[in-house]
Amino acid sequence: MSAALSYARVRENLEHLAMSASLAALDSVLERGQKEEKLVVEVLDELLQIERSARFERRIQTNLRLAGLPARTSLDSFDFTAAPDVPRKTLEELMTLRFLHQGENILFLGPCGVGKTHLATALALQAIESGHRVYFLTLHDLALKARKERARDRLEDLMRHLVRPELLILDEIGYLPLSQEDATFLFEVVNKRYQQARSIILTSNKSFGRWDEFFPDPVLATALLDRLLHHATTVNIRGESYRLRHRRNAGLTDPSSPGKEPTP
Q1: How far apart are CA 171 and CA 209, in angstroms?
Q2: In a domain, 254, yes or no
Q3: Are residues 88 and 140 in the same domain?
Q4: Are residues 227 and 144 in the same domain?
Q5: Is the same domain home to 163 and 184?
Q6: How confident is the model over 246-252, as a mean pLDDT?
Q7: Which of 15, 71, 110, 127 is 20 to 30 A from 47, comparing alpha carbons?
Q8: Same structural domain for residues 219 and 124?
């Protein structure tokens, strides 16, 4: 078989196998291999590495699009000076994603505006960039989705969608009270992920002792916390809302009355 025919067949096979990255790089890889007198197996290895890297990058982009993250934040952009009690070493350890491989949970607790969602999103982004599937939603959105799918008799489909990702982020727990149906569904989601050792990152403005303020059934709340905390890291964040701090620094609030708008 002539070299020209072999080359044509290689291109045809790469296209048939949907190896678009290898196909695009074929000519340059062959030319470089010829100049550097590489072995055939070395040229093949380079092409496969190019294809593998491209597919991994596409996977990351797909997972990022499906994750539903509210923003792309990082640990480097977190203001530790505004929240000095946040354990930096603990966060750096969590960024290794060992918690994910061990099926452990992370719970960020603290008042509004202290960076709970920022940290949860940073960990989610790290997981996505490492090739993991992630899904982010607020508890309010979870309740809305559950009500919609319950009315369509498709609640099991939603359950599978929530259990499948390696990491689930539940944001803003405790901001709004839950109905009995919504609380039961939340428990079922947490329980199924617990049984399969799949991690959850949760943010809440309520300490665990105050979960009865938004959970209609204290027994169910206790059972939920039991599963969340069995293998978990809890990070308590104190301090002032960064939004209020920025407004005060900009002169938009009355210093003598925190949180009060200045009188015209």
Answers
A1: 18
A2: no
A3: yes
A4: yes
A5: yes
A6: 51
A7: 127
A8: yes
- Looking at the structure of the chain, the number of domains it has is 2
- Show the domain range for 30: 3-66
| Cut 0.90: pTM above it | no
Residues 140 and 200 in one domain: yes
* Torsion angle defined by CA atoms of residues 144, 150, 154 and 160, in that order, rounded to the nearest 10 degrees: 60
Query: pLDDT by residue (tens digit) across 25-59?
Result: 889 989 999 999 899 999 899 999 998 888 877 88
